[in-house]
Structures are given as C-alpha cells and as structure tokens.
Design goal:
Length: 219
C-alpha cells in the first residue's frame, strides 16, 4: 500500500526556478569585472548566510555586496549592478503546470534556503504555493531538522504525512530524518510518476499513461 500523504513540500531552485546568471554576467561586463566576481562577492561571503537566516534583509545583503565591490573595484561598479539585481531567474514551466495540478488535491508548500525576496520572486514568476517558507523567515536553513519541522507545523500536517522533493541529496536525507517521505528530484515527469504512486490522480497532467521511472531515478 502506498504511504498516505496529506500535503506536499518542495524545494524551489532547480525545480521551479533555474538560475542562468545572465544578469550577473551583464553587470560584470558593464563594470569590467572578471567573470564570476559577483557570485564570489555575493554568495561566497558570510553576509549571504546572514540574509538566508533572516539576520539581514535581501536589500541589506545586496547593499553590502555593492559596498564591497565598489570598495575593491571602484565606485563605477554601483551603476552597473542593475542587471544582477533585476535578474530573478527563469521559471520551469513543466513544474509550474504540475504544481497547479497538485493543488487541486493537496496543500503544497515551498521550503527554500533563500532571503526574504522569495515571496516577491514567486509573484514575479506567477508561481502560487499554498504555503511559502523562506529560510529567512524561519530563522533556520536546510539541512537543519528544525527547518523541516517548522514548515510541517505551519502547514498543520505531521511530518509523516508530508512528501518532500529536493534536488540536493543532503536535504532529502534531512527530510527523511524527521519522518517525511522525501525523494530526490530529477525531472517533472519523474516527480509526477512518484506522486501517482503516492495516490494522487495525475492522469490529467500526463494526458495518457504515466511513463515508468528508471532505477537511477527511484531514490
């Protein structure tokens, strides 16, 4: 018998949104910065972790990145960072379609290691979840068990009645450690096949027969 689930929880990036960093590359060209500089200053610095757990707002973190870049490369950098900041990634249409189908049957939440910009980003992309959990609002990020338990408590669903999908194996293991039915995400089709196994009527999303999952994707 398939496990009973009363709700779903998803990771965000790599599932519903892809980052190609086109904005950062454009800003680097405008500011005559070596490729990869913005990523190093933005995500390889402790200030990003502080923003990810809500100590800093997204804007405070971006201001800190800007100040450090300007201090090291010159004040002209400030005028070149617009493309980096306005780039909010690209939505994954198959997963957005799958999400709309799932929400007819179960409440769905998103749990993402990110700043407080998540809600605005979801609105920007037209992606609607029933529950939104940026780590910045929870005050703790994955893989801490507290992140998963906090999300489950807020949804009002026991962890053993939640299914969770993430493309990061460490986070899948962490979700399993609190009792969730957690699976590594590979493709939208594989995810939908797994949901069908868990009892959701996914025929309208597939249109016809659900393709089988390969052994490689069965974890």
């Amino acid at each position: 018998m398939p496990a009973r689930i009363d709700g779903l929880l998803f990771d965000m990036n790599g599932l519903f949104r892809h980052w190609h960093n086109a904005g950062a590359r454009k800003s680097e060209r405008l500011a005559d910065l070596p490729e990869g500089t913005i990523a190093r200053y933005a995500y390889g610095h402790p200030s990003y972790r502080l923003a990810r757990v809500g100590v800093l707002t997204d804007q405070q973190w971006a201001d800190d990145v800007t100040d450090r870049l300007a201090a090291d490369f010159g004040p002209h950098v400030r005028d070149a960072l617009g493309p980096w900041r306005t780039d909010r990634g690209e939505a994954e249409p198959q997963m957005v379609s799958l999400l709309a189908e799932i929400r007819h049957h179960l409440p769905v939440g998103v749990l993402s290691n990110c700043t407080d910009a998540l809600r605005a980003d979801l609105q920007h992309h037209g992606i609607t979840f029933d529950h939104v959990f940026p780590s910045a609002e929870l005050g703790v990020d994955k893989p801490s068990p507290h992140a998963f338990r906090s999300a489950a408590d807020s949804m009002g669903i026991p962890t053993h009645a939640l299914a969770y999908f993430d493309d990061e194996p460490t986070f899948v293991h962490a979700a399993q450690s609190v009792g969730m039915h957690a699976y590594r995400f590979t493709t939208a089709a594989d995810c939908a096949a797994r949901l069908k196994e868990l009892g959701l009527p996914m025929a309208s999303w597939f249109g016809t027969e659900v393709p089988g999952r390969t052994a490689e994707n069965s974890g």
